[in-house]
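Q: Here's a chain of 518 amino acids. Please give me its 3D structure as tokens.
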Amino acid sequence: MLLDSKSNKPSWAEEKLSQIPNMVSEISRKITDFRQSYRELVINAEAFFEEYPTDYKKLTLLKHKVKTYQEQIDYIDNYRKEKGTFPAIKGHSSAKRYLSKLVAQQSASDMELRELETRLNTQSNNRYELLDHLTDHMLDLLSGERIFSQFLGTIALSTPSPKEKVRHIRNEKYKPIFITALTIALFEEVRTRHTFDSRFLHDELKKLFPSDKSYSLMADKLQQEREDSSAPEAMPGDIKLAYRENILKPLAKAALLQSIGMHSPEANDVLGHDRYRKLDQQERERLLSIADKKTSDYLKIGIGIPTMRFNSREERDAYLSHEKKQLAFILNTLKSTKYTGHELGDLLRIPMTYASFMLSTKQDFDYRQIYRAYDILEQGKADKAYNAVYVDCFLNMVGRFPLGSGIYVIQQESGEIERAIVSSLYPADPDEPTCKIITRRQIQFLSQAEVVVSKGSNLFFPESREASHYESEFFDARYKDEFTWNATDVWENQVPAIEFWKKDGTRRYNGSFNPDSY
């Protein structure tokens, strides 16, 4: 939406921000809608990249022609006023007829210029609306740990298996949405632990959040885990709406558009007939340079600041100031992704790195690579490739075991090995994920309770296997050194989303099995 449609709305802020789907099938439908909206944005961007060099070359030429004609007209008019007669024009017997011709040419060029500007402004406004509506609808939904977990988990679990030919194509369509949700969640964790040098963020956060109050977008998670009076509160509707519009929305736009330049003709020339092939270093550097330039062009030229009418100069000035600040912040955030450890760039770089494992577009992808994402980011922190505070916040949020990933669990009560799927963010211990156990005595079974899987009961860890009551020969014969499993293989056909995401709010701790007590 444009700025004039979002001012002074605290009366309905609570109602708007509470319109979150109750049924899990609705979450899946909305994710599909977001993917389709993003696809429309990409198609629109592809058209822009094809057309804008010609359009803006013509725009520049027409502006020059109109200016040149006007300068000649002004010269003749001024000469006539001063001398009382028309000047002699080389190659023209009548300066008066020449003036009439200039006026006609200037009028025709000016009309052509106005028509072109109107078309380009309309297209820019449409692109702005398309992007704004997508971010609006996403941010309407993304509020609270439970919704974030279900949103990210549904995307991860809907990923085609490594052998499916459509996997890399489908993942490319979902990845920007996945990255955007992770970016919003990361920023929400970071903002209470990090003082930003960015003047935009510093000023906006100071205006929004009172120093004597602690509010959280993830309040449902925090209230569940902490019952003390110091726990952050859920944001009031007016603060949440302002937070969303003034900070989260431009951040979400940066995340959604970080790869839009990859859809330009110049980028396609580098990628060739197979955009998912492995590039050599020279090709990769050239592609990134092109993508950065084209993404910047798309934001500054293809979207820019929408044109609209105002009732007063004060309204116009306030609108332009707001939009210029937001556009500058988006551009600065995207530019900062090229710099190691930058406070803005890492808000995108860390989710982008993580998403490259979760939604890989590589042709030789093995699902077991997703369990390496935690260690890769840890190593990145050690190498100072990422801001350490950001990495800690992110890894504490996602844990070692990604949402939607499959693990094997030794049931504390029975000693049986069961299958489990990670179902929630924010594990109390990164090595102890919150899961839904989906089997009972190896038979499909689902309940609404969640289980915190202890490190000692998770077959992923060698020490857990060594300490268990099972012999190593058994593990060798049955699991063949694969102690995780691909949960996407059972998603929907055996494990219905509508059942899996039902949670009754209870969590039990699954400790190590004691054979003597069985």
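Q: Can you summarize the key feature?
A: Residues 487 and 493 are 11 Å apart (CA to CA).
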